[in-house]
Specification:
The protein has 3 domains: 74 residues, Beta-Lactamase (2-Layer Sandwich), CATH 3.30.450; 70 residues; 135 residues, Heat Shock Protein 90 (2-Layer Sandwich), CATH 3.30.565. The chain is 44% helix and 27% strand. The protein is built from 7 helices and 10 strands. Helix 4 runs antiparallel to helix 5 and helix 5 packs parallel to helix 6. The longest helix has 43 residues. The two termini are 56 Å apart.
């Protein structure tokens, strides 16, 4: 035969297995025997020695046929040299493994850096009077950053879904009464940059709700819904955060750090606008962003 350089007589019967790579023979023989016993086609990949002595990956698709008396008459099928494709796939797998290792290492280094920053903050705040609440808020923001890093790492920094971002943001605040938060909306994919910006905004809303709003009382509820609309500029996201059943709300005398972070972070990192209404029956925040065409 032209590929193997062996005579046809050498390839007939069990002789064809002599050209198969020793590491593949047992697996191939087992699969071939099972296919013959079941009288079904067989698709397999194995290394076959070429006429120049080099082993090449072969994709074999064969179907046995039997004579009237049930004796095996031979095979129909094709054998294709797929070595180049197999090598490309191996290179891609190796690159993917390397990428996953680099991302894991980066995430580990970021976590260590955040832990160092947190330690420095604790030591610094301890020297300030009435520091407990500011320290808790600072640690909460660091923890929000850490959770977002974990979320993006699980997704290999290819982005997330809006559902994941919302659930991750509210989870530390509603562990004991998850029914207090209602979440819903269509599937929306976010880039890593959008994920970061929205995670911080939602954390500030959650923190405010837990300290002063709906999540500070047993009967309070938060409703987080979103929808998308197609416009000339692309897909527009409309997200609504609405609080109900909490203490009465009054507009603050001035904008706090959390409100400024929501407005500036969403505007600069998400190209989004936000409107916060301190309605008497509960705070309402509406976020509008163009996701792209």
């Amino acid at each position: 035969m032209e590929f193997t350089g062996r005579a046809l007589e050498e390839e007939i019967g069990a002789g064809w297995m002599d050209g198969v790579h020793p590491e593949d023979r047992s697996r191939l023989a087992e699969a071939s025997n099972a296919a013959l016993e079941a009288r079904r086609p067989l698709s397999s990949e194995y290394r076959l020695r070429r006429h120049d002595g080099q082993y090449r990956w072969i994709r074999d698709n064969v179907a046995p046929y039997f004579l009237d008396d049930g004796i095996l008459g031979g095979f129909f099928g094709s054998a294709t040299d797929v070595s180049d494709q197999v090598e490309r796939e191996a290179v891609l797998r190796e690159a993917q493994t390397l990428q996953e290792g680099l991302i894991a290492d980066l995430n580990h280094r970021v976590k260590n850096t955040l832990a160092t920053v947190q330690s420095i903050a604790v030591q610094t705040f301890q020297r300030v009077q009435d520091c407990e609440m500011p320290l808790q808020m600072f640690q909460g923001r660091l923890n929000a950053l850490s959770r977002t890093q974990d979320l993006l790492t699980r997704r290999r920094w290819r982005g997330t879904t809006l559902q994941e971002v919302v659930e991750s943001a509210v989870s530390p605040f509603v562990d004991s009464h998850r029914s207090a938060v209602e979440i819903g909306g269509p599937d929306v994919l976010l880039t890593p940059k959008q994920t970061m910006a929205l995670s911080f905004a939602l954390h500030e809303l959650c923190n405010n709700a837990a300290r002063h709003g709906a999540l500070s009382s047993s009967g309070g509820r938060v409703i987080v819904h979103w929808e998308t609309r197609e416009t000339e500029d692309g897909t527009t996201l409309l997200l609504s955060w609405r609080e109900q059943g909490g203490p009465p709300v009054a507009p603050p005398d001035r904008k706090g750090f959390g409100v400024r972070m929501i407005e500036r972070g969403l505007r600069h990192e998400f190209s989004a606008t936000s409107e916060i209404e301190f309605a008497p029956d509960g705070l309402v925040c509406t976020i509008r962003a163009t996701l792209g065409s």
